[in-house]
Amino acid sequence: MNESLQIRTFKKSGHIEVICGSMFSGKTEELIRRIRRAEIARPRVKDFKPKIDTRYSDMEIVSHSEQSYPSEMIENSEDILEKSFDFEVIGIDEAQFFDEKIVDVCQKLADAGKRVIVAGLDQDYRAMPFEPMPKLLAVAEYVTKAMAICVICGAPANRTQRNTSSSDRVLVGAKDHYEARCRLHHVIPNE
To answer: Which of 94, 131, 141, 179 does the annotation list as catalytic?
Structure first.
């Protein structure tokens, strides 16, 4: 019986994982945890963050609980493509600060067989969808919504309360400008 043996080569399937939630919900901490777990299998890992995020470090992503991981600051989301060629796992922190092209960048990386782990705020301080995160949520294979704790009542919090009078949509800060609140205790400043 002669049977021909067919050898098929399969392209490694990439995917997008999104970690979203309010400030102080542990998004960056979860991103760091996933990256460190991925390193156990020894893939080449690279993390990126937007140039606007200089809160804790220029050379690392840093969680509010002070965990850190080396990261490269990027001005333009399309720069991630050319800097990711030699890596299998790509981390992207504070994705809400990137331009709309970040969605296409993540799609291209996943299509190239890479594991893309993205963290960012899904809502702004007014509890409105924070672009481009809703589009990333829509195209991701895996979504994790992290919850914080309301500083007023201790309930699960999925909103970011701004404690300054600034009405700019983007105001980079931490505990100096923001706190986690539940739906009941969230108040939009100046309204």
So the answer is: 94
N-to-C CA span, the chain: 81
Task: Evaluate whether 160 touches 23 at the Cβ level (below 8 Å).
Answer: yes
Judge contact between 136 and 106, C-beta under 8 A.
Answer: yes
75 as an active site residue: the answer is no
pLDDT tens string 68-106 = 888 999 999 999 999 999 999 999 999 999 999 999 999
**DSSP state letters, 40-74:** TT---EEEEEETT--SS-SSEEE-TT--EEE-EEE
Any bridge partners for residue 6, and if so which? none
Specify the pTM: 0.87
pLDDT value of position 6 = 47
